[in-house]
Amino acid sequence: MSISDFDVEPVVSFRSFAWVLGALGVVLGLLAAIGWPVPHVAGRVGGQQAWADTVHDARAWLGHDGWRTSGASWV
Prior knowledge:
single chain; transmembrane helix; transmembrane
């Protein structure tokens, strides 16, 4: 028995999985850098109320409030 008996073909799916994780990381990093609000979790607040709070936070961010606070957080 030699080492060549244990040679296997490389896994191709891991490389694509790494690309997907990398792309997701870039998108989430950009959202974090611009201060986009984190969605509320339904278990913490409540089903409909969590969605309403998330929409409210996004509208406040789009109304220029988010840009001011995210810029201050970098200082």
